[in-house]
Structures are given as structure tokens and as C-alpha cells.
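[#protein-structures] MJ: dropping ABC transporter ATP-binding protein YknV here for a structure pass
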Amino acid sequence: MANKATADRAVKRDRFVYTDDDVIEKSFNWEQMRRLYTYMKPHNRELIPVLIVMVIGTLTRLGVPLLIYYAIDHIILPDTGSGNTTHLWLLAALMLGMYVVQMIATHFRIKQTNIIGQKVLLSIRSHIFTHIQKLSFRFFDKRPAGSVLVRVTNDVNALQDLFTNGVVNLLMDIIQLIGIIVILLVMNFKLGLAVMVTVPIMFFVSTSLRKKIRFAWQEVRMKNSRINSHLNESIQGMKVTQAYVQEKNNIEFFRQMNESNLKSWNRASALNQSFGPIIEVTAAIGTCILYWYGTHLIKNDAFTVGLLVAYSTYMAHFWDPINRLGQLYSQLLIAMASSERIFEFIDEQPTVSEKEDAKPLPQIQGSVRFENIVFEYEKDRPALKNISIDVKEGQSIALVGHTGSGKSTIINLLCRFYDPVEGRVLIDGIDIRDITLESLRKQVGLVMQDTFIFSGTIRDNIRYGKLDATHDEIVRVAKAVNAHDFIMSLPDGYDTQVEERGNMLSMGQRQLLSFARALLSNPKILILDEATASIDTDTELKIQEALKVLLKGRTSFMIAHRLSTIRNADDIIVLDHGRIVEQGNHEQLMAQKGVYHGLIQAQYRFV
Ligand SMILES: Nc1ncnc2c1ncn2[C@@H]1O[C@H](COP(=O)(O)OP(=O)(O)OP(=O)(O)O)[C@@H](O)[C@H]1O
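AK: finished. C-alpha cells for ABC transporter ATP-binding protein YknV:
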């Protein structure tokens, strides 16, 4: 009984497993900063006016307390002041002008830094996306689509704060802080030191608190990312969830995740809140010291009332930059962690790469030769063992075999999604590693079992095979593969919008569309991974006819599931555990009464 309960718990615990984000433990890393800066560099020119405006804004902010000091000591005070009200009015007007300048400067700075920041993020995002397009299948084998998405979205967004406010704010705060410290010390050295005595204490307390806050927010972020993964998976797998009546389980899991996220959020938020009072207390201590020691100095004629008021105004501006610099440090660490993940991604090199002297594949006849191919996806687990196949131009080859026997792997090597560990693949006698990938894939067409329909119109989806195709060409190929009639019966014909993955189309319709796409691109070698799902006889007939048109005059490789396709093939290759075990036409292989015979018997008993 106890064992069953333990087993149940284990099953429940293991049902949803999401990998966590990396923990931010890294400290500041200059090399990464330098790499991040390369994205900023093209915008240096745009940054110059922002920096000038920022300096003007900061200087006017620093100037205001000096005007106050002058007004009190030199105009207002009966002992030392002139009592000249015109001067007072002039000073007031000057002060107003300075506030206006500050306001305009702040507005301009925020607007421009946001624009520049967004441009930088855009170029990082584009760089990652462009890079992803070039990566080999091996990379995607190791990474779920979700984790790729997170890098392009979350990790790039995590850099937003740094690029939009961080850099300019850093300079502004440093200038403001240094300016205030210098002014305070120049006005009165001893008083300056006295009011700043709390700074190191505050710095120490806030640094340790910030560390806690950072980890607390990190926990929130991880829980958030787990919620996202679960959401993503739940939506994608909704059909299966409903079919297996797992909704309650799903909801309960989601509720637990949400609750745990809320708890972490509350904790992080409470820690964050405690930061304010610390600054306030420190600022209050500084102010007490100022008034206590300041009045003492005034009594001894070592200080003036005007200076005291100016001092207290500076003190009010003193803590803001310190606070912001602390926040910036946290931002920087978050950016470090994200950029590390981004760069790790960008540094990933395609395993299938073009040789430097790769030439474009000339117009081919279509003969293919697999020469003693050995291949493994993972070390010491060979997926293909010593495969040799000779295919003449225009021949059709059917690849058959049990699941996992290596059929798709052969196709993967022919498209050069992977390179063989041993042996060569030759097209018209040319090793495909010596030619450019683009020229290879232009002449080798691929029709996948899971026909991918992109969101857009039917026309766009067919045109994917040749982007500059005219409407007439599109209609011609659609007619040739028997797709025209069903397309015309859709609400907007060729302009009908199909949703992502083509959910509104039937399996057979999607197949016909993919045939039209392939026919339009007109490759000399065609690879076809036949859909396994059974379709009605009428569609089956249409597909058979379409296939005849599609295969005419081309060398073809088919992972065939339909008996009719297999029968029509010129040569059938039977694979078992990565080896070719039989080869010949249908009649020959049936007569052998070997693996092929067994497969046909088992699969087509009901045909
Ligand atoms: N991306 C991959 N990473 C690791 N191993 C893989 C990968 N793809 C396939 N394999 C392994 O390689 C072997 C051959 O797989 P392959 O996909 O070629 O089989 P198949 O004959 O096409 O199967 P099916 O008819 O089920 O599609 C299998 O053992 C499979 O587990």
C-alpha cells in the first residue's frame, strides 16, 4: 500500500518536468559587456546629443541650490543681504528657466534612450533569429522549441532596462553624485564629511539586502518561466489532454504553480519594500547631522543660513543617484546572465557547414549514390551501418522498414541536414559536402509527412516553393496535383487565409498543397515522406494521381506507407536496424518471403 502511494507520488511529480533557467551567480563580466557594446556601437552618434542634453540637465539641477544660497545670503538676510527685490525676481526667473531646461532635458533623454534602446534590442533579436536559421538539425535535436523562444524573447527583453535607461542613467548619476560631493566639500569640508558618514554603512546594509532581493526576484522569474512552459505545453497538447481527460490534473498543477509563484512574489516584494525605509533612515540621520552640526557652525560664524539651505537641498538629491546606482548594479547582473545565454546561443556553430571553396551545384541529371555510409546521432549508437545505394536519374526508390530502422536518416543525409560519420553521398558524382547548401537544397525537394502550413493564404503557402511564381503558375501546379478544385471550394479560393499549421485543412488537402508547393519548386530530386494516416478512397485516388504528376521525370526517394506507392517504385530498399537487408522490386521481394514479405503481411492484411 505504502509502495503504491510512493509510486503514485513519483508519477505525479514526474508528469510535468520543466528545466529551470540558469541561476544568476555570475558577477560582472567585462568581456560580455564589450560584446554587448558592439550592438550599441552603431548608435554612438545618436547617443551624443543625448549625452550633451543629459550633462546640461544635470548641471542645471546642480545649479539651483546655489541660486537659493545666493538669494538668502546676499539678498534676503537683513545682515548680509542687499534687500534688492529686482535681483530676487531675476533669480526667481532664472530658477524657473533652469527647471524648464531640466524638464525638457529629462523628456528628451528618456525619449531618445528608449528609441536607441529598442533599436539595440531589435538588432540583437535579428542577430539571434538570423543565426537560428543557419543552425543544423543537431542543435534543434538538443533543444526544445520553448527554450529557443525564451532566448529570443525573455532573455533579450531582460536587456531592455540596461539599454534603455541603464547606460545613460549611469553616467548621469555618476556626474550628479560627484558634483554634489565636490560642492558639499567645497562649501564646508568638515560638514561635508560629517553628513556623508552614513554612506558606507548604508552601502554595506543595502548591498547585502540587494543580494537577497536579487535572489528573491530570480526565484519569481524561474517560477514564471515554469508557468510559461506549462502554459505553452498545455495549449499545444490540448487535444491530447482532453482526449485523455487530464484537464483536472492540469488545472490543479497550474493552480499549485500559480500559488507558489504568488508566495515568491510576496516575499520578493516585501524585501523590496524594506529597502525604502533603510534609505529614508539613513537620509534622516544625514539630515540630523546637517542641522545639528550646521547650526553649530553658523553660531561660530563658520557657515551661513544660505549655505545650510543649499546644503539640505543637495542632500535631498544625494540619495537618489546612490539608490539608482544600486539598482543599476542589479540590472547589470540580470543582463549578464541573459547575455551569457544569448551569446552561448550565438556562438553555437552549425555542425553542417559549407566548405570555404564550396561551389554551387550545376543543373543536375539526378543520379544519387550513397557510398558506405555510417552515421550516428549519438556517439556509439549507429543509426546507419555501411549503407550503399546507387540510384539512376529518374528512378523512384521506396524506403521501407520497421519504425526506427533508419529511413528518415537516409533522407536527412541526402538533404545534408547531417553529415555522415563515414562514407559519402554523391549527386551526379559530386560529393554533396563540396557544394553550397543553398544550391543543393534548391535541387532536392522535400515533402514532409507532417505537411507544414504557414499562416497566410493558400497562394502564399504554395508559393513557398518559388517566391516569384505568378498566379497562373500557381494555378497550373494546383490543377496538376488535383488541389485546384478543393481550393476553389474554399471561401476565398487561393486567397483563403489558413491558420498556422493549417488546422482548417484536412490531412489529404494539406498533402495536396505540399505536392503543389514541391511541383512549383521543380526539383530534380524529390524526397517524399508519405503520410501514415489513412484517408478516404477518393482522396487516396487524387493523391495517387497527383503523385504520378509530381514524380514524373524526377529521381525520387519515398518513405512509403501505401502499398500502391511501394508497388510502383522502381526499387524497394528494405532497412532493418540501420542496415539494408533486402533490395528489389515488389514481386522479387515478395517471392523472397523475408523481412519485406513480413512487413507487407503485417501492414497490409486489411488492404
Ligand atoms: N535526432 C535524433 N537524435 C538521436 N537519435 C535519433 C534522432 N533521430 C532518429 N534517431 C534514432 O535513429 C534511429 C533511426 O531513426 P529514423 O528516424 O531514421 O527511423 P525511421 O525508419 O525513419 O523511423 P519511422 O518510420 O518511425 O519514422 C532510431 O533508432 C532513432 O531512435
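MJ: nice. The first helix runs from residue 2 to 15.
AK: one more thing. The chain has three domains: 29-187, 189-302, 368-603.
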